[in-house]
Amino acid sequence: MTQQLVWRRYFPQLLDPLRAAFHPQQLIPSVTAGLVTGIIGVIRAISYAALIFSGSLSVYLSTGIGMTVFSAAVVSAVVALTSALPGMIATPLAAPTAILAIMAGSIAQGLQNQASPGEILITVTVAIALTSFFTGSCLFTLGQLKLGDAIRFIPYPVVGGFMAGTGWLLVSGFFQVTTDFSLSFYALSQLLTPHCVLHWGVGLIFTLILLFMSHRFNHYLVMPGTLISLIGVFYLVLFCTQTSIYQARVEGWLLAKFPQGGLWQPLGFSSLAQVQWSVIFSQLGGMITVMLISLLSLVLSNSGIELVVGQDIQLNRELKAIGLASLASGFGSGMVGNQALPSTLLVHEIGGHSRLTGLFTAVPALAVLSLGSAFLSYFPKPILGCLLLYLGLSLLIQWLYHGWFKLPWVDYAIVWIILVTIGSFGFLQGILVGFILTVILFMYQYSHVDVAKEVLSGDTTRSNVERNGEELSILKAKGQGIFILALQGFLFFGTATYLLNQVKSRVENSQSLPVQYLIIDFGRVTGIDSSAVLSCSKILRIAQNYQIQLVFTNISPAFQEQLTKGGGLKKEAAFCHIFPDLDRGLEWCETQILDQMGCCRSSGDELEQHLITLFGQKQRVERFMGYLQPQLFPAQTFIYTQQDPGDALYFIGQGQVSVLLELPDGQTKRLQTAKAGNLLGEMRFYGKNPLSTSVVADTDCQLYRLSQDALSQMRQESPELAEQLGGYIIRLLCDSLARREQQLKVML
User: Pseudo-torsion of CA 410, 412, 414, 416, nearest 10°?
Assistant: First the structure.
């Protein structure tokens, strides 16, 4: 019974997607998109084989075609079944293929006089298969460990240099395929001979036609249709010039005849004895380069597909899908695979949003493998070459021409440096140079970022302690003696010098009042290195020499320990002070200045003087006090809480009260500190939600409470007192808004 319920529940969920995939509305676009992208993939696979198995390896082109076509089939099928995006197309890509071609050529050259042709072929095949296996294992492990988000971010100039370098290697591969000479300074004389110019010239013409058609017409049949038409034009020229197939092959226009037998020839365990392992170990750098390029290509392709499709794709799942595909290809002596951005976008333009699309993409490759290699010898070399040149020129135009108008000149220069390095030394070296340059550029630019988010002075910035008119005047006049640096970001050797220069400039400024108090706020500092600690130690010596009180605020225990060890903080020194936040550190400095001016002594009648100022006559004050109820609040007693917001006004007779905001992390931020003569709870009194969440007595406090009932009674018995009180509260709220506005202006 239970099994029947499970079957009834889950069987429709499994069957419905299958029914939808085979519905004609979905099946026809899937078949069309899959076959079109599959044909293009086979043609590209053949061109990749021609690139890898060129020069002395050209006699093994049949085996190479089998390898690349098999790789296209298995990678496409595995990714179709495992990708997070139905309709995702994967295939061997040009960039890793260019590195594999360099590896294969290096192996063939190194074993030219040391091994038999069979051993050379087996060694090259094993090197390619091991590269696929290691790359697949790396990608799958990254996806399994859910490290996709950690590798998403790659400097944009490095991306551009990588793409441009890939384009250059593809252009070089075009000359290798069409003339059997690589594009280099030493081979320039051979490439300029009439025979070679004719061969690569035809390929260039075909490429220009392909570029024009693909950019002029936006249709999925343009690419395969143009290629088929070019093949027809090629044979039409042979017919008109009465050139035989044999003569065309001898002159290098067609691929050489392949030996009899199947295209795909996977290696067995018995073949491993013929492998020259020492030569393979010497290619570890190339294998690592393929791994890095495959990872880079996957991240870039994934981002591009997300952007066009308008759908987030799980990068971790894509890592595992591509990893499994490369592992399967490697076990079958095949190449690494990756997401094919153009083909995937083409599929989604056609509407093949089904996993069947990727399976149909593998059908043309399987057909080529089953039909054998006889028909491939009739494939024109200029067609293979023009595909390589088409891809290469597309990348170079995008990053060298369009990049001139889109990129800052520094980033554009880095793209060129990476391109030249790749062309001169190799892909891995070029990418490393690019990363080094971008890191240096970042450090240079970051060192010019103002590490002090706010450079403030005590005459424009005050603590949240309520002050009377006399105190405010003194702080306005003497406030320049308080110098505040609110730091941000990571303090390292580039920004530490800037911080030290800020302090020196202000201390040595003769046009301002001498600095008495230096406040350094670490509230937004994310980290410090040894250079920043050294700068803090120099600031400490400046403070000691100039008799400046050094105040540290919002400094974590870890930063305190780091500065103490490096001599940037001396807790035992009389001129070093630590406060939990900037507000309390600023309050301490203000109190020191006011105390020096004799303004911090309480006379005990501040409330009475304040009310006389408010009501004008002592008799009115006495009458007003009759509506108030005296209350005592011991220190650390809550007057208002979040649970009991209250609805009464409090006048402070004696003591000190703090208005607090409770933060999500359990900490509190002081919004205001009020002393004798000030008013509390005006927003609560009128039924408005206050900014604060609690009000606490800092010391033993004598408060006077005005209730709602007492206010109603006052309005009936003494309406003039109620009117004066209302006007005072309005002025109080306006002053509070003006103070907040001034603080925002200073911060901005």
Answer: -140
Quote the percentage of the chain above a pLDDT of 70.
86
What are the backbone dihedrals phi and psi of residue 163, each rounded to the nearest 5 degrees, phi first? -65, -45
Q: In the numeric block, which tokens belong to residue 166?
A: 């890939």
The CA distance from 551 to 574, in Å, is 11
Give the pLDDT confidence of 8-26 residue by residue, as tens digits: 443 344 344 545 556 566 6
Query: Which two structure tokens, joined as six digits, stand for 30?
Result: 């899937």
Of these ranges, 109-118, 265-274, 420-429, 482-491, the one predicted with the greatest mean pLDDT is: 482-491
Closest CA to 357 of 15, 83, 45: 83
For residue 380, list its beta bridge partners.
254
R_g (Cα) of the chain, nearest Å: 39
The backbone region for 655, taken as left when phi is positive above 0, alpha when psi lies in -120 to 50, beta otherwise, is left
Could you give the CA distance from residue 701 to residue 638 in angstroms, rounded to a whole number?
11
Joined tokens for residue 201: 């010239």
Largest CA distance in the chain: 125
669 has which bridge partners? 661
Give the integer Cα–Cα distance in Å for 51 and 723: 93
User: From edge to edge, which strands make up the β-sheet containing 482-491?
Assistant: 452-457, 482-491, 517-528, 549-553, 576-579
CB 421 within 8 A of CB 158: no
Of the candidates 3, 100, 643, 54, which has an alpha carbon nearest to the alpha carbon of residue 334? 100
How many Cβ atoms from other residues are within 10 Å of residue 529's Cβ?
15
How would you classify the pairing of strands 549-553 and 576-579? parallel
Written in H, E and C, the secondary structure of 18-74 is HHHHCCHHHHHHHHHHHHHHHHHHHHHHHHHHHHHCCHHHHHHHHHHHHHHHHHHHH
Could you tell me if 501 and 447 are in contact, meaning their C-beta atoms sit under 8 angstroms apart? no
- Give residues with Cβ within 8 angstroms of 420, minimum separation 6: none
In angstroms, the Cα distances linking 516 to 47, 457, 672 are 76, 11, 25
Could you give the angle at which helices 94-110 and 427-447 cross, rounded to 10 degrees? 130
**Alpha-carbon distances of 464 from 658, 659, 660, 710, rounded to whole Å:** 9, 9, 11, 30
Q: Could you tell me if 447 and 494 are in contact, meaning their C-beta atoms sit under 8 angstroms apart?
A: yes
Model confidence pLDDT, tens digit, residues 271-287: 777 888 888 888 888 89
Question: Are the C-beta atoms of residues 623 and 718 closer than 8 Å to each other?
Answer: yes
CA–CA distances in Å: residue 518 to residues 20, 80, 435, 498 = 71, 64, 39, 16
Asked if 464 and 673 touch (Cβ cutoff 8 Å), the reply is yes
Give just the sign of the alpha carbon dihedral 255, 257, 259, 261.
Answer: positive
- As to burial, measured by CB atoms within 10 angstroms (0-12 exposed, 13-18 middle, 19+ buried), residue 735 is exposed
Among the listed ranges 137-141, 170-174, 358-362, 493-497, which one has the minimum average pLDDT value? Answer: 493-497
Separation of alpha carbons 384 and 713, rounded Å: 98
| DSSP secondary structure code for residue 83 in this structure | -
pLDDT at 434: 87
CB atoms within 10 A of CB 319: 26
Question: pTM value?
Answer: 0.60
Half-sphere exposure (Cβ direction) of 611: Cα atoms closer than 13 Å? 20
